Amino acid sequence: MSAPKALIAEDETGLLSELKETLASVWPELDICAEAENGIQALQALEATSPDIVFLDIEMPGMTGLEVARQASGKCHIVFVTAYNQYAVAAFEEGAVDYVMKPFNAARLSTTVSRLKQRLHGAPAKLDGILKLLATYFAKGKEYLGWITVPQGQNMRLITVEKICYFRSDRKYTSVVTADSESLITKPIKELIEELDPKVFWQIHRSTLVNVNAIAGLNRDFKGRLHVLLKERKETLPVSEPHVHRFSQF
User: Fold this and answer.
1) Quick check: 19 and 55 in contact, CB under 8 A?
2) Domain boundaries, the chain
């Protein structure tokens, strides 16, 4: 039996390379027959190469991953690539092959590979249900948090999210940091990631979310590690390696 062929469609070049490298380590036999950085390229590659598997980013420019998936439905096995848990869970429960979350994790991708190897013996799933569900989700849009409630003595104070420079958590609490204040809440970073607009608040470390509008610039320390400089705070925020790709345009 010939090696299975896969198309990777991911609009962030750094993440595309990362996914390709991780796949090579966990499934060396897999033939990456094509790569695409937008929906139109993905559709062209789909038609030109007839892959067995497509790793498909849900949100891409030119043509969304959902539109590409409509063309791929029933023709090849789909793995949705997403930064958003609600998309991923919906896709998995509706019968898509699987999903992988950004940033990529080798252990999680190994699980996906195991499932793919089992499903390659069967016909690719029809995606009518998940595509309808996701299209409805996109049409409605998502409402993100507009403010954070923090304790202040015997009272509670509301902080609008645009005033927040960053969130940083430890084992028990999360700091809510504005230009001139710091407060503690019990909501963990993993919940905030789901509730905040991902275009405004970027995860730059497993324990840190930063407001992109609060970023003044970047620098590197003597070891070459990247740090975020803030407009209204003196401290800098370290960027861990899995999140460095976010700043490729800086």
Assistant:
1) yes
2) 5-140, 147-247
Q: What is the pLDDT of residues 126-142, one digit of tens each?
A: 888 778 777 776 665 56
Predicted confidence (pLDDT) per residue in 69-89, tens digit: 989 999 999 998 887 666 666
- Phi/psi region, residue 65 (left: phi>0; alpha: psi -120 to 50; beta: rest), is alpha
Amino acid residing at 11: D
Cα 198 to its chain centre, rounded Å, is 9
Residue type, 22: T
Q: Which regions of 58-163 does DSSP assign to beta strands (E)?
A: 77-82, 98-101, 147-152, 155-160
Main-chain dihedrals φ then ψ at residue 48, nearest 5 degrees = -80, -35
Residue 3 identity: A
What's the token pair of residue 12? 């962030």
Reported as a single tens digit per residue, the pLDDT across 95-113 is 666 888 877 878 889 989 9
Pick the CATH number of 147-247 from 3.30.300.330, 2.40.50.1020, 3.30.465.10, 3.30.565.10: 2.40.50.1020
Q: What is the pTM of this model?
A: 0.58
CA 219/CA 8 separation, integer angstroms: 32
User: Which CATH code is given to the segment(s) 5-140?
Assistant: 3.40.50.2300
